[in-house]
Task: structure prediction
Amino acid sequence: MPDPFSADYVNLTSPAVAHYVVTPSDSADLPVRPRALFVQSAGTAALQDKGGQVVTYDLAAGAVLSIRPVRVLASGTTAQLVAWY
Result:
């Protein structure tokens, strides 16, 4: 299929070009650092940032988090998340 925007520069304000289902882990970083997270089903998410800080969020289904975590911890995460990048 033709993509008239394939040569456009992709940045944090442009639409995501790919996605994956997040598998939370207490020991492994995400395979690709996302530009945002979509909440597939409600719950909590323990997100670790680039500096190692972990914050747990209470999330509603359908929410979009404009945060770029390096890890989603299994401990403290009950929400199902999709990463956009």
Summary: The mean pLDDT is 95. The beta strands are 19-21, 36-41, 43-48, 54-59, 64-65, 71-73, 80-84.
